Amino acid sequence: MHSFVSVGLLAAAGHHDSSQVPKDFPWTFWPECYSNENTTEPYCVFTSQNFASGRGIFIVDTATNAYQFLQKPAFADPNALRRVNQYSNPSFEQREFPGKGRGLVANKTLHRGDQIFASTPLIIANTDVYDLVDSERLALSHRGVEQLPSTSQTLFWSLLDHFKGDPVDDRINTNAFEVYLLGGQVKHVVLPEIAMLNHDCRPNAAYFFDEDTLSHYVHATQTIYPGEEITITYINNERAREKRVANLKMNWGFECSCSSCSAHPELVSQSDDRIQQMRDIASALDDWTPTSTATPEAAELLISLYEQERLYASLGVAYKHAAETYASFGDKWNAMKFARLSAEYEVLDKGFGDVDVGAMRKMAEDPEMTWSWKKRVGFERRGVGACGHVH
Ligand SMILES: C[S@@+](CC[C@H](N)C(=O)[O-])C[C@H]1O[C@@H](n2cnc3c(N)ncnc32)[C@H](O)[C@@H]1O
């Protein structure tokens, strides 16, 4: 049985007359909700036209979750969004790229760590909403779009519809990012400005979603010169070309045309070898047993491979390995150096509250107080060879 239902937390349901919404009611309209035998709580559309100084948002989720979002500083603290949704003097312009559609190019030099933009989503949707039948799931997202303020509706309708199905669903599927919120629940968020950034397997910008401000931040991870396209990655790039191409085709529906995907097969083969070696070294550095082949030299090689692969957006991972490896052999100054570098890079990719960023900041202050300090002192140094094997 599928039903249109009212929600216990709400005083009434089933109509959309905003004039009847009481003053202290947090949403602009009465939520429309559906449930069935697969759902433990109805899924509803909760719209706030006032959110983010009138940009608006709609949330497709249970009432329990929607009210948890309301507790976040993004809703509760008027100052929380000061640095967000500022598009009056952008450091980029929109341009057409053959084979990729629209994209953004820098109009001034951007340095590593520069904020390119930060935005609140127009949509947050619980991915479990697929438990509803399609017609009801679609009714919720159509209702949400109709309820957005008109400028945000225009932004939504300007999004690419790659799959040419239901016009609302298609724009969500082509442009949504997956994020983990409310204790690790998967949500889809739609951010029209960030959705203009194309994918590159060797991107020059990184992004993260900040749960407190419900905002998506994009920063440069290397110098980007005027006229250069600003790119992010949609996937994990530490994989062979064939796997990256297949992933983009399957999950995003396009043939990747970035330079590392379209390189000569000989160069692709060299790149794939480097990626395999990076994976082997990373797993050796993650081995904390007395037979581990981890050495500071192997960690330095890992950094060099990331640089050679132009994987600057994820270089923080290699620096973290180096910081922990140096610490494990009791080399305080190198541990501090690489911990500082790791924290600087990783915050751009993982966000302000990330545990790895916090751990690296602690190590940069005092490596001797961290868990890996001198963990490998006394281990026989075996070393990892070019093939990733012990020599
Ligand atoms: C989030 S949108 C990016 C903006 C899009 N180009 C537009 O015109 O709206 C994602 C879509 O852009 C295109 N795209 C992004 N990166 C690409 C790439 N590296 N190669 C080819 N197409 C790409 C694909 O059509 C993909 O489905």
UniProtKB/TrEMBL annotation:
The protein's name in its UniProt record: SET domain-containing protein
SUPFAM superfamilies: SET domain
Residue ranges occupied by any SET domain in the UniProt entry: 90-235
Signal sequence, renumbered to the chain: none
Domain of life (superkingdom): Eukaryota
Listed Pfam families: SET
InterPro entries for this protein: SET_dom, SET_dom_sf, SET_domain_protein
